[in-house]
Amino acid sequence: xxxxxxxxxxxxxxxxxxxxxxxxxxxxxxxxxxxxxxxxxxxxxxxxxxxxxxxxxxxxxxxxxxxxxxxxxxxxxxxxxxxxxxxxxxxxxxxxxxxxxxxxxxxxxxxxxxxxxxxxxxxxxxxxxxxxxxxxxxxxxxxxxxxxxxxxxxxxxxxxxxxxxxxxxxxxxxxxxxxxxxxxxxxxxxxxxxxxxxxxxxxxxxxxxxxxxxxxxxxxxxxxxxxxxxxxxxxxxxxxxxxxxxxxxxxxxxxxxxxxxxxxxxxxxxxxxxxxxxxxxxxxxxxxxxxxxxxxxxxxxxxxxxxxxxxxxxxxxxxxxxxxxxxxxxxxxxxxxxxxxxxxxxxxxxxxxxxxxxxxxxxxxxxxxxxxxxxxxxxx
Length: 380
What we know:
This protein is α/β, with parallel strands linked by helices.
């Protein structure tokens, strides 16, 4: 029997490679002769780098860069051959900005640009960026400055960090941008469809969770509108209304405008990067999973993305092993998932489930295999 394990991480508990490893141990308790292929995956957000590096046999590379508040932080990116994988949150994520020191109008993506330069220094020609979890709303201006773009006000002074500065932008000089940017393929993995500005734009929708007051939201939205006008007038890049331009505080817009990046579905981008279709071919069973599954999972979350492709390529049954089952989870049955199994074997606090997750995953995988073995004996 060929079994493909394609789980996401269990957020706050285990990485996707760890989840796959523990599921494999439980399977082999019952079917030691099974051919188990571990293919940890992600949706473009947290864990994307680790999943792709594990699947392709790459390496994690460390780099000290500028954090969202201007402090130095230890970040990372993944490298596999001439491809790099960058999680912008590693350099510019909300978790790097102390809750008591949020600076939403000054938070910068400069460190993300520095990570991009490190990937170019490593010889990478294709760079995949996952752009969730940002602390920033600067339209990717900081990223562009790190790459060598000069953003000046009417007096010729360089703009400071953050989206709040963009209302003063008068001149955009790209002549000093690192020439290697043009020779690289840039792919953005994101399932956010927000435009850059307006009531559905990044400041209005995501600003409050980054510490924005209503006044901050108004300032950032106005500044980003001005920024979009300058991009259109001086660079000929009209990106503000492209779905996904507002991803990661407008970093989606900046990556399209300055790097010529292509925005793609997070789940599908990762599955393509790890050659999912080739790995799932011939599978008799696919096991996916994540920390929690509910009605929202039917709208493009990773387990459903895995199930759809597994059904299309291999026609194999798909089981989702999850930490918790939320309201409306049954909606995923219409999208290729055949069964949902929770790892909780009794009522327990979340902290206990997290602490015991390795054993719970092993035991759950064993139960799944016992059920499948029993089902084969039933006269259906």
